[in-house]
Amino acid sequence: MTSSSENQRRTRQLLGMRGADTKARSLLALRVQLMKPVTWIPLMWGVLCGAASGGFTWSVGNVLLVITAMVMSGPLLAGYTQTVNDYYDREIDAINEPYRPIPSGAISLFQVKEQILLLLGLGLATAYTLDRLVGHSFPTIFVLAAGGTILAYIYSAPPLKLKQNGWLGNYALGASYIALPWWCGHALFGTLTPTIVILTLFYSFAGLGIAIVNDFKSVEGDQALGLKSLPVMFGIPKAAWICVLMIDVFQVGVLVYLIATGKFYWYGAILLALILPQMYFQKALLADPLKNDVRYQASAQPFLVLGMLVTGLALGAGV
């Protein structure tokens, strides 16, 4: 019989999480691992928040539009992003996560390139289809998807390789995982306005802080290969403070906007109630970022993503 611990390792492997099973895996499982399903959730949630801010109304057609946009943002384009990242990170993964499909030799580079092109093509085709379905005269969703794929590529690939710079790389990550899917969801049902763009970019700066949390586990490999992540540049304690300040300050900025408009007091009160627990859980992260990074993500991030939806609902109510 298969032990529960072995099942957990295989599940973590399939989701693209740390602590993966290193035993023989099917090609399909390897391809899914490259796509890191655990990373799809923020983009799919971003689409949902954008739909809420765009004034989504309940109908079968609208629900299908949102689901299609979620598939585009998550499995297809986030899957593309993660596969590209693993392709160009194969040397650093050989240090930090040698069980990954590419450094372990379980999948060939040719097969990885096939996957990149397939996911890219399907993602862009889905974006174009969504534009047609909602009657856009300008292909807003296609342009957002194309811009996201370019950003994802230069984030991972030389010569730019934005992830080599902690500030640029982490903000590119935050914008890709929060602002772009939010704009996509919003564009399905409404028109992008400066207010929507600015507030979602605020959340992208909070996303920069979240990206720093992910950097703590890779400090050793980043130092070995000369990557200037913020924990490498500033040291782990200072990077932890930068992390929590980015997460808190920009969420509070959104809160101030909701209250200052005079229309969203109840939404602002709910958002405040979701920010305070994050600050509480940050004590453990600041005490030991290397030990408590995963615990912090599990305990605090649900409050952040719920706050995003609250903001989306507030903005949608004002449409």
Question: How would you describe the overall organization of this protein?
Answer:
The protein is an all-alpha fold. It has one domain (27-317). The protein contains 14 helices and no strands. It has helices at residues 4-15, 27-35, 40-53, 60-88, 90-96, 109-134, 140-156, 166-189, 194-215, 219-225, 230-234, 236-260, 265-287, 289-317. The radius of gyration is 20 Å and the shape is globular. The relative contact order is 0.11. The model has no long low-confidence stretch (mean pLDDT 90).
Protein topology:
Layout: H1 4-15, H2 27-35, H3 40-53, H4 60-88, H5 90-96, H6 109-134, H7 140-156, H8 166-189, H9 194-215, H10 219-225, H11 230-234, H12 236-260, H13 265-287, H14 289-317
Helix pairs in contact: 3-4, 3-8, 3-14, 4-6, 4-7, 4-8, 5-10, 6-7, 7-8, 8-9, 9-12, 9-14, 12-13, 12-14, 13-14
Considering the chains and any ligands shown, give keywords for the structure:
319 residues, 14 helices, 78% helix, mainly alpha, globular
Distance between the termini: 56 Å
Count of DSSP H/I helices: 14
Query: Largest sheet at a glance?
Result: none
What's the total number of strands?
0
What string gives the helices and strands in order? Answer: HHHHHHHHHHHHHH
Mean pLDDT value: 90
Beta-strand percentage range: under 5%
Instruction: Name the helicity range.
Output: over 70%
Shape from CA axes? globular
**Number of individual domains:** 1
Low-pLDDT parts are: none
Rg result: 20 Å
- What class would the helix/strand composition place it in? mainly alpha
